[in-house]
Amino acid sequence: MAAIIRTVSLNPALDEAPSIAHLELGGTNRCSLDSLDPGGKGINASRVIHRLGRPTIALGAAGVDPGLYG
Description:
By secondary structure, the protein is α+β, with helices and mostly antiparallel strands.
């Protein structure tokens, strides 16, 4: 049985991957959001460990935007 590798992200993030269908120089260009993925060093490390076939658990803090309640 393989040991479970645990990673800790003290500052997790959301990684956005935008795309643009057509780029018009000098014009207004709008992009769309292709994907929104969890990120941060510990989370990214756990994703790679998982892809390599090893068991892993990613731990991190989750918060809220203080502007939502202010």
